[in-house]
Amino acid sequence: MDQTIDIENIKNHLEILNMQGRYNHYMLCGRFDKITEMFAKKYPVEAEFADSGLFYGLEGIRKLFAIVGEKYGFSGELGLHMLMTPVVEVALDGKTAKGMWHTLGCNTYKEGNKVFAMWQTGKYDITFVKENEEWKYGLFKWYVIFRTPYDKGWVEKPIIESLRQDDSPQIGSLYSPYDPNKIGVFLPLPPEPQNIK
């Protein structure tokens, strides 16, 4: 049995875990400018949050995070999310990686002038690319599982709020939040070891 320790692979894993943790802190602080800097410049980037639709290129990324900032930039806003169940697989060449996390969040939403509490959960599905020896986001998706008022629960009211706008692009094919009348699939599956395409 090979007992060799791949230091570079461990380093890549730690850098990706730290990057995603840093992203989470930036989200809570509303520092969307810092988040957009985390996307690759030389890779065809794309991003999608729940039902936002797919946004392409750096301009699309900036537009998506501007929408998130507008949607949740109000007095009493809270977007505290925990990252859980990390699965990170780095390609054999060390140039790309895939990562997946579940999230559970305490959030607020606004109706009129009133602020309400909600629970929110989903999963991140991210492709990372190495650019100038630094990990960057390439493909960035967050699939909502439920977004519910804290006092009603996901069975009574599984989805509230939306990131759709009148000019939003098409929703990705994996948008399939919890539905109490269906068996949940909650794809995609986590990345397989050393199987990065």
Question: pLDDT below 50 for ≥5 consecutive residues: which ranges?
Answer: none
Number of DSSP-assigned strands: 6
Q: How far do the termini sit from each other?
A: 27 Å
Helix content: 10-25%
The coarse overall form would be: globular
Based on the coordinates given, report the CATH architecture.
Roll
Give the arrangement of secondary structure elements.
Blueprint lengths: L6 H23 L2 H5 L9 E4 L5 E2 H16 L6 E12 L5 E16 L2 E18 L2 E16 L48
Task: Describe what you observe in this structure.
By secondary structure, this protein is α+β, with helices and mostly antiparallel strands. It has a single domain (about 5-150), classed as Nuclear Transport Factor 2, Chain: A. The protein contains three helices and six strands, in the order ααββαββββ. The chain is globular. The protein starts with 6 loop residues before the first helix and ends in a 48-residue tail after the last strand. The model has no long low-confidence stretch (mean pLDDT about 90).
